[in-house]
Amino acid sequence: MNIAELCIKKKVVVLYMVVVVAIAGLVSYSKLGKLEDPDFTIKTAVVTTIYPGATAQEVEQEVTDRVEEAIQKMGEIKMVRSLSKANLSIVYVDIRDEYTAADLPQIWDVLRRKVNDVQANLPPGVQKSIVNDDYGDVYGQFYALVGDGYSYRELKDHADKLKKELLLVDGVGSVSIIGDQPEGIYVEISRSKMAALGISPQNIYGALNQQNTLSPMAQVAVGNEYIRIDPTGAVKSVEDIGDVMIGGGPGGVIRLKDVAVVERKYVDPPQKIMRYDGRPALGIGISTVKGGNVVDMGLAVDARLRELVEITPVGMELEPIYLQASEVTTAVNGFVLNLIESLVIVVGVLVVFMGMRSGLLIGGILLLTIAATFATMLYMGITLQSVSLASLIIALGMLVDNAIVVTEGVLIGVQKGQGGPAAAAKTVAGNIWPLLGATVIAIMAFSAIGLSPDSTGEFCRSLFQVVGISLLWSWVLGITVTPLIAVMVLKDPEGEPDDPYKGKFFRVYRGFLFSALKNGKIFAVVMVVLFALALFGFRFVDKSFMPQDASPRFTVDLWRAEGADIYETSKNMAKLEAYLLSRPDVESVATTVGGGTLRFTLTYTAEDPDSAYGQAVVNLKGSDTLFDAMKGAEDFVSKNLPGAVAQSRQFSKGGGSEAKIQVRFQGSNPAVLRSLAERAEAVIAADPKAGFVRQDWRQLAKVIRPKVMTNQMRNMGLSRPQINEALMNSYQGDPVGVYREDNRLLTIYSRLPERERDGVEGLKLVQIWSPLTGKMVPLGSLVSGVETVFENPIVRRRDRERTLTVKADPIIGANSNALFERIRSGVEAIELPLGYSMEWGGEFESSSDAQKGIKRMLPLSLVVMLSIIVMLFNSVKQSAIIVACLPLCIIGVTVGLLLFGKSFSFMALLGVLSLIGMLIKNAIVLIDQVNINLEDGMIPFDAVMDSGVSRLRPVMMAAGTTILGMIPLIRDVLFGPMAVTIMCGLGFATVLTLLFVPVLFVLFYRIDVPEADR
C-alpha cells in the first residue's frame, strides 16, 4: 500500500488535517512579524576616543594606531577602518560574515575588554574610549519635536519626558534624541581687570573646581545610629558661581562676579543643528526590540503619544519624518495584493486549461500550501516583508507543479477507465521520488544565496527559506491530499474510455515534436546559434547591483570647503530648505547640520561629524516628480550658494547609502595619495555622466601656526598647554569645571568678554599669565611670527594602512555600472609608485562580495542537484542531456531583459539560478516518463513521442502558471528584473523541455526516426 492508497483509506483523518492546516495558516498570518524589507545584521561597532588638542596626524599615530592594533588581535575581525581628525579618533570594527547576530554580544564583550586594556597605553590627556555596539540600530519611528517660541532647553526637557514614557511601551527597544544644544556656564573674565588686580587665571580655575567637586562625607555614631554629615555650601545655581571667592593678588579675596560675568548659554559653536520645515527641532527616534513586530510597536507608540498630548506644552508638536510602521503596512499590503493577483491568475490559468474541477482542485491545494507555509514561517521566526512575500509569488507557479502532475495522472487514468483510486495509486507510485528529486533540485537552485554568509545573502535569505518551505509542503500535499481530493472530485467518464490526447492542442504539438526529431541535428545547430547570439546580445543589457528605492523620498547632501564654520553651513542649509519648501510637490524637509541623522532605515548610513556638512531628508507628496525635485535641489545649490556643492540621492534597496563608484588608494605618504586621487578624479570627472566626484580626506585645511620661541617661553615659566589654554580662553572658551544640575552636568567655560575677543587680527595680543613674573604677557612676545599652513584635516585607514578613497555617483537617472565600465580602464591605467596599491570599492565591491558568497556555495548546490539527477536516472547520458540544456536558458533571459528594458541586477542573477532548478525539474518529469514508457515495452521512438505528449499539459501548466503569476512583480523595483528573467527564461526553457530534451534524447541514444509519424 503506497501513501496515496493510505490517504484514500484514511479519508477522514486526512481531511481533518487539512482543516487544521488551513486554520493554522490563517492564525499564523495574523501573528507573523511585519517589516518593510528583510532585517539584516550590521556587524559593525564604533570605538570613539577624544584627544583634546591633538592634530589629525597626532590622533592617528598616538591613539588610532594603538586602538586598531589592540582590536586586530581579535580573531573575529573582518576589517578595521578608522577616521582620525583633530581631537577625535573613530574606529569602525567590522566582524566577519560567518558570525551571526547571536554571536555578536559575546564578540562585543571581547572588543570592550581589548579597548579597555589599551587605555593604559594611550598618551596623557586622552579621554576614555567609548565602544558603541548599537551602531546598526534602526530608529524606524522618527519624529521631529518642534515648538515655536520654545528654547532648545525646553524642547529637550519635554523630549526627555517623552523618552521616559516611550521606553515603557511594549515593543520599544530604545529611544534616541539628536539635535540637542547642550548648555554651558560661561565665565567671561576681563583680562584688564585680572591684570589690575594681579589675579591669575589658575586661581579662578582652582576655585571653580574646588567649589563644586564632590568629596567623601563624614559619618558619626549617634546612639545606635550611624548618621552621615552633609554640609551645605555647594554651588546650587548660576548666581552661586558668581559668589565664589577668589584669593590672590594685592587685593586679597574678591568675588568672582567682581572680575567676571557669569552666564548660562548654549555651547558655542554647536556640534549639530537640526530643523524641521525651517523650524528648530529635536529628532526623536524609536527602535523596535530585536525580533519585534514593527507594525504593532508603531501602533502602540501612536496610542501612547495620543495619551501624552495632555502633558505636551501648548505649541509643541511631534512631526513625522519617517514612520516605518506605516511604510511597512503599505509595503506588506501592496505585496499581499500582488500575491492575491498572482493567485487569481494561477487558478484562472488552471481552470481554463485543465477544466473547472481540476483547476479548482489544484487551486485549493495551492491555498493549503500557502497556509502551511505561513504556519511554518511563524514557527521559524520568518517575517512578512518584501523578500518573503515576493518569494511566495515566485514560488506560486512551482507550488502547483506537483499537484498538476498528480492531478493530470489521475485525470488521464480516470479518462482511460482505470478508476480513481487505482489511477491515484499508480500516479503517486510512479512519480513520488522523481517529484521529490525535482522539488529538492528547485530548492537547491536558491540555496547558493540562502546559505551565503554576507549581508546580501542575509538580506535575501528568506527567499531560499520560503521557497524551500513552500515547495516541500507542495510535495507533501501533492502525494497525500491531492490524490484523495482528485478521487473525490474527478468523476469516471460515462461510456467507453476515450483517448485523452486526441485534441487539437496535442496534435499540433505532436507535429512540431516529430519535425524537431526528424531534423534533430539542424535543430541542435539552431539552438547553438541562438545561444551565441544571446551571449552577444547580453553585452547590450544594462548591468547593476541593487536598484534605487522609488519611494517619494530622497536626501540632499550639502558640502562646503573643509573647515567651514557650522553657522555658515547652517545658513546655506536654511536657503536650501526655503527652496525645497517652496516647491508644491514637497511635503516636508528635515535637515541636520554638522553630521548625518539617526539610522531611520536599514540602508541609511549617517555621514561622519563635520561642520562643513549638512543633509536634508525630503519627503515628497508623490513619486512622479522625484527626479525633478532631486535635480532641482542640486541646481539651486550650484546657482545660488557659492562655495557649496550638493548631491541628491535616492535611498537604496538592499544596500548601503555609500557612493556607487569608489576607488581606494593605499600607501604611507599623504601627498602621494592625494596626487593619485587627483588623477583618478580627473579621469572620472571627464565622463559627462559622472556627478559629485570627491575625496573622503576632503580638502587640505588651513591652520594658523604661531612660531613659538622655545627659550623665551621657558624663561617666562610657560608651556605649550598654557599657551593653548590662553588661546581657548580668548576665543571659544576653555573648559575649567563642571556645574551639576539635577541629572545634568554642564561644563563651565572661561573666556574673554566679547569686546576683548579681537579675532585673528588680535592673535599676538592674546594675554598669557606668567607664573614667574606674576603678570600677563602678550603672545607676540613669545613668537617669532605667525604663518598659515595647510594640513590634512582627516586621515582614514583600512587595516592600519592609510587609505584615500575617491568617490563618485552617476548623475540623476544614469546607470552606475555603465559609468564604472567607462572609467575603469582609465583609472586602472594610473601608474602607482612602489609601495602603493589601488582597489575598487562601492557597488563593484558589494557586487563582487555578494557573488563571492554565491560562488562559495554554488558548487555545493550544483553537486547536490547533479547527484539527485544521477541517482534518479542512474545514467550518464540522461544526466548529460539535462546539463546540456541549462546554459541555453540565457537565450530567453537576454531577449526578456532587452525587451522590457530591465537591468541584469543581483536579483536577476538569482532569477537565472532559479531557472536552472525549474528547467531541471521539468526535464526530470519528461525523461522519467520516457523511462516509464521504455519499461512498459514501447519502442524507443514511440516512448520519446509519448512522453512529450503525455507531459505536455503538466509542463505547459507549470510554466504558464509561473510565468503569468510573475506579472504583478514586473513593476516592483527590486524584483522586476528577477520576474522578467524568470518569465522569459522559463518561456524559452519550456521549449527546451518539450522539444530540445526529446531531440537530445534521440541524438544521444541514436534512436531511429521514421519517415512519418505513426
Describe the overall structure.
- Strands 1, 2, 3, 4, 20, 21, 28, 29 and 30 form a nine-stranded antiparallel sheet that branches. Strands 5, 6, 13, 14, 15, 16, 17, 18 and 19 form a nine-stranded antiparallel sheet that branches. A four-stranded mixed sheet has the order 12-7-24-23.
- The two termini are 37 Å apart.
- Helix content is 50%, strand content 19%.
- The protein has 1014 residues and is of the alpha+beta class.
- The longest helix has 35 residues, at 455-489.
List the helices and strands and how they pair.
Elements: H1 3-9, H2 11-31, E1 44-50, H3 56-71, E2 77-85, E3 88-95, H4 104-118, E4 130-132, E5 141-147, H5 152-166, E6 172-178, E7 183-189, H6 191-197, H7 201-211, E8 219-222, E9 225-228, H8 238-242, E10 245-246, E11 254-255, E12 260-266, E13 273-276, E14 279-288, H9 294-307, E15 316-323, H10 324-354, H11 356-380, H12 386-415, H13 420-444, H14 447-450, H15 455-489, H16 504-518, H17 520-537, E16 553-560, H18 566-582, E17 586-593, E18 613-620, H19 626-640, E19 644-650, E20 661-666, H20 670-685, E21 690-695, E22 701-708, H21 710-715, H22 720-730, E23 734-741, E24 744-751, E25 767-770, E26 775-778, E27 783-791, E28 794-798, E29 801-810, H23 816-828, E30 837-841, H24 842-873, H25 876-885, H26 890-900, H27 906-935, H28 940-950, H29 952-965, H30 976-1004
Helix pairs in contact: 1-13, 1-15, 2-11, 3-4, 9-10, 10-11, 10-12, 10-29, 11-12, 11-15, 12-13, 12-15, 12-29, 13-15, 13-24, 13-27, 16-30, 17-26, 17-30, 18-19, 24-25, 24-27, 25-27, 25-30, 26-30, 27-28, 27-30, 28-30, 29-30
